[in-house]
Structure formats: C-alpha cells, structure tokens
Design a protein that fits this description.
Blueprint lengths: L5 H14 L4 H19 L6 E5 L3 H15 L4 E6 L7 H8 L6 E5 L14 E5 L11 H12 L3 E5 L22 E5 L17 E5 L5 H6 L4 E3 L3 H6 L14 E5 L6 H13 L4 E6 L4 H7 L4 E4 L18 E4 L7 H10 L7 E3 L1 H8 L2 H5 L6 E2 L3 H8 L5 H15 L2 E4 L5 E3 L5 E3 L12 H14 L4 H23 L6 H6 L1 H10 L1
Parallel strand pairs: 1-2, 1-4, 2-3, 4-5, 5-6, 6-7, 8-17, 9-10, 9-12, 10-11, 12-13, 13-14, 14-15
Antiparallel strand pairs: 15-16, 16-17
Helix pairs in contact: 2-3, 3-4, 8-15, 11-13, 15-16, 16-18
Bound molecules: ligand NAX, adenosine-5'-diphosphate and potassium ion.
Ligand NAX binds next to helix 1, helix 2 and helix 3.
EC number: 4.2.1.136, 5.1.99.6
Family: In the N-terminal section; belongs to the NnrE/AIBP family. Belongs to the NnrE/AIBP family.
Catalytic activity: (6R)-NADHX = (6S)-NADHX; (6R)-NADPHX = (6S)-NADPHX; (6S)-NADHX + ADP = AMP + phosphate + NADH + H(+); (6S)-NADPHX + ADP = AMP + phosphate + NADPH + H(+)
Amino acid sequence: MKILTAAQTRAADAFTIAQEPISSLDLMERASWALVQWLKQRYSAAVPVFVFCGPGNNGGDGLAAARLLHQDGYDVQVFLIETGQSASADFTQNLQRLPSAIAVNRLQRLEDLPPGLPPQALVLDGLFGSGLSRPLEGLYAQVVTYLNQQPATILSIDIPSGLFADAPTPSGSAVIQADVTLTFERPKLAFLMPHSGGYAGEWHVLPIGLHEDFLNQVESPYQVLLPEAFQTILRPRSKFSHKGTFGHALLVGGSYGKMGAITMSAHAALRAGVGLLTVQVPQSGYSILQTTVPEAMVLTDDHERHLSQFPEDLTKYQCLGIGPGFGQAEDTRLALESLFRQKLPPLVLDADALNLLAADRLLRQQLPPDSILTPHPKEFERLTGPASDDFHRLQLLQNFCSEHACYVILKGAHSCIGTPSGEFYFNTTGNPGMATGGSGDVLTGILTGLRAQGYSPLEACQLGVYLHGLAGDLAAEAVGEDSLIASDLYNYLGAAFLQIRHS
Ligand SMILES: NC(=O)C1=CN([C@@H]2O[C@H](COP(=O)(O)OP(=O)(O)OC[C@H]3O[C@@H](n4cnc5c(N)ncnc54)[C@H](O)[C@@H]3O)[C@@H](O)[C@H]2O)[C@@H](O)CC1
Ligand SMILES: Nc1ncnc2c1ncn2[C@@H]1O[C@H](COP(=O)(O)OP(=O)(O)O)[C@@H](O)[C@H]1O
Ligand SMILES: [K+]
C-alpha cells in the first residue's frame, strides 16, 4: 500500500471531489462518519467526549464527528481555539450544522480552558491535520501541553496535532501525544519513523473512498507491507517436490560464547522452508550445532574459537548467510575479504559481517550486487555515518542501496526495506516483545532460507520481515511481550506461514 505525502493527499481529495463527483463537505462527512463508526465500537455513550477544533478541515472533521456522536446519544462538548485565524469553508458549514444542544466553548486564552478533564473522558484532537505548515505556537501550543497533561484518552483525527506528516518535526515542538490515531485512507510517513511514530499511539487506517484511479496511478517511493501482497509472492510446495527443490543454504557464523546466535539462525532457516541447510562454525561449535539443530549439516573451521575460512566450494549453495555470532577477529576479517573475491551465491549479511564491512571501505566496494544487509540503526550508522533525523536516515538508506546495488533492511519497530531503485517498504508486523537478544539472528536465518528457495531479494526481504514480525505477534499472543524470547520467533514461524497462506 502506497503512502501519500500531505500534498498527494490534497491532490487525492481534489481528484475524488472532481471525478466521483462528491462535494468536499460530503467527503468530510464521509471521513467523520467512518471515524464515528470506529469510535462507537470502542467507546460507549457513557464516555464524555471533548472535541478540540482548530480552524482548518481537521477541525471541520471534529465538528462533524461531534454532531454525529451527539445524534447517537453521546455527551459531547466542543472547544474552538480562536486566535483570529480565518476558518475553512467546510469548518464554517459544520459549525453552522452543530445542534444547539452541544455546548461550544470558545477559547481565546489559556485561562478559558477547564481546570481539568475527567480521566474517563475521550478527547478528539482536531486541532490540525495534514495541513500543518509550521510548528504550533501560542495558544495552540498551550492547548497541546494542557491536553497532554490530562488523564483522559486522546484520539487524534488523521494525525496528532503538531506532527508533520512527511518531514521532520523540529525537536521541542508542541505535539499531541495520542493514545489512538484514526488516519484517513493511508498511514502517514511520520507514524513509521522511530522519533515521531510514538506520538500517534495505536494507529488505524480508515478508508474514506478516495478515488481508486488516483491511488493506482500516483507515484510514491514509500509503501507499507500488507498481507495481501504475499498471496502472490508465497509459492506453493508442489506435491512432487523434494528437498532439492527448496534450495541448499549455507550459514556461516558463531564464535566462542556466541554459538547461540548461529544456532537460532539455523533453526529459523529451516522453519523458513529451506530444503537443505549447512552451517559452518568454529570447532568449538560442532557438538552444539549437531545436538541443538540435528536437521542441519555442520562444517567446522580450522580454528577452535572463531571463524577463519569459508568452505572452498560455494557453488552448491543457493544462498550464503553470514554474520550471527561471527565476531570481528582479524582472521575472520581476512576470510571475508578473500570471500568477496570469489564468485558467490546470493548473500545475506548481518551483525559482525556488517561491522567488518563498515570498518573497511574497500571491502564495502566489493559487496556483490543484490546482497541483503540487515543492520539495526547502530550498525547502519557505522555503515553510512550519522543521520541528522529520521528522514535524513531514509536518504542515507537510499544512497547506500543505490551505490552498492543492494537491499538493506533497516531494522526497528517498523523495519524499512531499502532497494537499489529507491523504494522503501515499511513493515507493519512485530511488537516490542521482539526487542530481545537474538531476534535479529532469527531474521537472518529466515532471509537466508527464503533466498535459497529462489525468492528474489525483494521478495525475500518483504516476506522475511513480515513473517518475522507476524511470528513475534503470534508468540506475544501466547506468551506475552515480556516473556517473548528469540526462539519463540522461529517456533511461531509455522503459525505465521499458515496465517498468510490461509488469509
Ligand atoms: N482525504 C482526506 O484525508 C480528508 C481529509 N480531511 C481532513 O482535512 C485535514 C486537512 O485539512 P486542512 O488542509 O484544512 O488542514 P488543517 O486542518 O491542518 O489546517 C490547516 C490550516 O491551518 C493553518 N496552519 C498550518 N499550520 C499552522 C500552525 N502551526 N499554526 C497555525 N495555523 C496553522 C494553515 O495555514 C491552514 O489554514 C486532514 O488532516 C483531515 O482531517 C477530511 O475532512 C476530508 C478528507
Ligand atoms: N519494538 C519493536 N517492534 C517490532 N519489532 C522489533 C522491535 N524491537 C526489535 N524488533 C525486531 O527485532 C529484531 C532485532 O534485531 P537486532 O537488533 O539485530 O537483534 P539481535 O542483534 O539481538 O539479534 C529486528 O528484526 C527488529 O525489527
Ligand atoms: K489532529
């Protein structure tokens, strides 16, 4: 699903208004109706609703929602922030439509605000939406600070007020800290970024019928991954297939004290459906691998505690995954250096393989095209240098992927896949229970297993991050986020596959 910028959303509105055709007032009514339907399923009419409105169409949505909720028997009060700014036409119309039974409070100074809102109250934040053009100041900023201090639940309409949809919000700006955000038609880019995503709280997308033709033709480099995409990507396993059909993967990693990392990757590659798996570890890892992952074949390095070589014949493998528990010993670095001079199967690189790359520009330049790299933000910074903000980091991601013709999964709450041609795919599965050691090693195993089965690098990245997060979500349903550990991820991978196949 494409993500639209605020400007593209305005264009989508205008296109819909002209082509459907529908008046802009009716489009606002449709958006507010969708919002109220969602809200009624979650909050009973016993919950008092306080609607805070700015002068634009976001405020207009708030007014329309106030009217609809009142019709449904909710106790609604409206607060208009009046700073002398002129109101939008649809705001004015909706103000006129407001039944007189709804109390309208006109706020011109901080002192006009009620001393406090009840904890059971629901605040609808309709101060500003995607039309925000500068940080909030004066009374608007004061209202935001006031609302953020209230014990009430805050539901933001479209986007938390004060948050820029597709540009960095200057630090220190007043921004609503929403509990829930109901956003129209498409999520905002800001919801997916580490520094701004938290303001939106739990967010949901409400379709409001923007014109299909516009949505199909509009160009956006930003997409969110949704399960529908996987119906076509995920391949069936045919009746007469055999283990050779599903590829032979090689995982190389592990060092003394970090053998668990490569063990978890191995389990994950197998659960991702690979036909055959070989794991190369230092000698001290031999018994560990043979006992904990009996399905895998094991090769050992000459060295006892760390890796110093790769197998000579790599032609029989369809994917080579390197990194979990790899270490950064000098021998290991030299082995990686000589590896890059050979003809190689598709690569997945993680953890210390990335740190070695980061420390060696020449090595980086020899990175084979179509490799998949899976850095967390710190590893990414080592590769590209620091980013000044989340949007700059996306720029660095794009530059790195195009310069090295590779795919980078920048891991996080919404892991982002960068591609050589400049697209970004944000993942929508996963939860904070996955912030636990070894989660990334599991992802490496999944990607290696998928790539060995012949999935293209982009397909493997998309399917891999989605399945990994979904396994985390299913595991969290069973054991809770607190107790989730990385091995739960590969143990729930089967359930994640089933969910995708049967959806
Ligand atoms: N397709 C959609 O997504 C639809 C969106 N609608 C609503 O319309 C909203 C966008 O409406 P608008 O474009 O009127 O945007 P806003 O409601 O955000 O208001 C923008 C107005 O506020 C002013 N402004 C911007 N930043 C300011 C600041 N920091 N301090 C003071 N004034 C500031 C602008 O100059 C402009 O006049 C959406 O967020 C959504 O709530 C719906 O009504 C209809 C359909
Ligand atoms: N809050 C979160 N929400 C969703 N996914 C998360 C969250 N925290 C971590 N993850 C996922 O867990 C994995 C952690 O990887 P990484 O940091 O490399 O861990 P490790 O090095 O311990 O294996 C990534 O795939 C990341 O997307
Ligand atoms: K808002």
